[in-house]
Amino acid sequence: MRYNELGDTGMKVSHIGLGGAAFSNIYGTYDEKRSFELIRESLNRGVNYLETGPWYGQGSSERTIGKALKDVPRSSFFIGSKVGRYEKEPEKMFDFSAEKTEAGMDNTLALLGLDYVDLIQVHDVTFAPDISIVLKETLPVLERAVRDGKARYIGIADYDIDLMKEIVEESEVKISTVLSYAKSTLFDNRLQNYTNYFKSKRVGVINAAATGMGLLSNKGPQPWHPASDDVKAICKRASDYCKSKNVELARIASWFTLNQPGIDVNICGFFNVEQMVDTLEILDSGLSEHEKIVLSEIQTRFFDKVTLHWDDVELPAYKAELDKVINK
């Protein structure tokens, strides 16, 4: 396993981190026993950073990780969680207020069974009614949580990298990390346009969703995936091509992402131990010659001339759902 300094936090984190969305029904049927095995075997194999949050299973992710870590020495791992995104119902999904942030922080620690988290992040700030709420309410509460020993560092997690950059620049509260997802992939590698900036600010860079939340896999994405049908169709063609060559698209997509520079930790969501072991082997041993050829071919055929994304999709969709609830 490779280890990197996470910004100026002093934390030396594994290049591959364990994603907590897997410990919910977001990517498949949740199974507690399988989740425990995955968490413990990941730690045994050198993964020392775990990423979670209340949104993942409305507490099931944090609760599962807490149970799995019960007898694990606290000094042997780092863990990050989140505030800001909570429930499935549109009217309760996001809350960046000071009151909810304080309660969310305490609930996270209770579910994890920990005295503190190493990193507490504001989740999906795009959905805040106004960025001033994040700057004036959410972040000051988290700063107080750091002073009180409930967290060590503060971060921002969002799909919009420009927005995270704006917060880093404007916040009076120190931002130690940013978490970007689905923008260090074969179809969208825009995170590379920002890593030098964040490094210049000594902000740690966390990346997630090497497969674009399932788009870059032979299985394909979940029905809820926000990408357009056109984006899904291109990725499906890439997947079909990989299948015809007896190659798993998720493997070569993961290798591509894990080898991008300037990223301190890559959060990977695994369904089981086998997937985790396979990804660690990709990092350690690389791709076969046949996989390298297929990677080059799908880049040329499907991804080199276009950036695929779902910018400006989720926020309007959320607002439309919220309007339906309000106008009932």
List low-pLDDT spans: none
CATH fold field value:
TIM Barrel
Radius of gyration: 19 Å
Q: In CATH's first tier, which class applies?
A: Alpha Beta
Mean pLDDT: 96
Query: Structural class, judged by helices and strands?
Result: alpha/beta
- Please, what is the CATH homologous superfamily? NADP-dependent oxidoreductase domain
Biggest sheet layout: 8 strands, parallel, barrel
Shape: globular
Number of domains: 1
How much of the sequence lies in strands comes to 5-15%
- H/I helix tally: 12
Number of strands: 10
Major sheet: arrangement of strands = 3-4-5-6-7-8-9-10
Task: Specify the CATH architecture.
Answer: Alpha-Beta Barrel
From the N-terminal CA to the C-terminal CA, the straight-line distance is: 53 Å
InterPro entries: AKR, LGALDH-like, NAD(P)_OxRdtase_dom_sf, NADP_OxRdtase_dom
Protein name: D-arabinose 1-dehydrogenase
Organism: Papilio xuthus
GO cellular component, one term: cytosol
Task: Give an overview of the whole structure.
It is a single chain. The chain is of the alpha/beta class and 328 residues long. The chain has a single domain (3-214, 251-287), classed as NADP-dependent oxidoreductase domain (TIM Barrel), CATH 3.20.20. It has helices at 32-44, 60-68, 90-93, 98-112, 131-147, 161-170, 195-200, 229-244, 249-258, 273-285, 289-303, 314-326; strands at 3-5, 12-14, 16-19, 49-51, 78-83, 117-123, 151-158, 177-181, 204-208, 265-268. Helix 8 packs antiparallel against helix 11 and helix 9 packs across helix 10. The longest helix has 17 residues, at 131-147. Pfam families: Aldo_ket_red.
